[in-house]
User: What shape does this take?
Amino acid sequence: MRKQIVAGNWKMNKTFEEADELLFELAEGIEPIELENVEVVICPPALYLEMSTDVGLENGFSVGAQNCSNKEGGAYTGEISAEMLKSLDVDYCIVGHSERRKYFKETAQELAEKVNLLLDNDITPIFCCGEVIEERDQNIHFQVVQKQIENSLFHLTDDEMANVVIAYEPVWAIGTGRTATSDQAQEMHAFIRQILKGKYGNELAEGLSVIYGGSCNAQNARELFAQPDVDGGLIGGASLNAADFLTIIKSVK
Ligand code: 13P
Assistant: This one.
């Protein structure tokens, strides 16, 4: 069975004290949950990665960064490299979130470079893709997602690709309270697996985790995760509340 992943993307939220408190609540809540086929990943702001990995190592969850530099290292003021993340025991990194594509103008080429550096450092990229509402209205959402995946991932070898997680996050569903229906999610996830099959073959595509993000919450997670090609979720707002996030973890099939 494919690995199910529930990742919490805290985005730019929480002071140090608040982050510390949330981590403590999560640690307490996660410990008794049967996590046999579920990987829980907490993606806090970079400042809190070190304390998160400390708590995570003791309490059974992994830690992911929200972003990394597309440069290996050196004179790039303000940037954080994949190698630095690895040195803090960070195991995952979100790449190409729609907020970064939109507000920080990240290009497909830059995302490909980030993916390469992360894989070089044994960090699993959580590669985000998804259409804006105008693209869905024009019925070009499948082509849009296909291009995003092809342009930033299809240069990878089979071995490299096998270590990538894909997150489908329809932009119109992010932070809007308007989630994709479970049918819409399943349809796109099956499509993503289909294009992966075409390039990398059946076995690899069937083994890859494709997670859903966009207004996924404690109420709708179970139905979304029940879909055969939805392998968990990338959770924004609802990951900021321990009780909600714990309910979402328990919603995994
Ligand atoms: P929301 O769950 O707040 O819609 O955010 C989803 C997201 O962007 C996760 O990366």
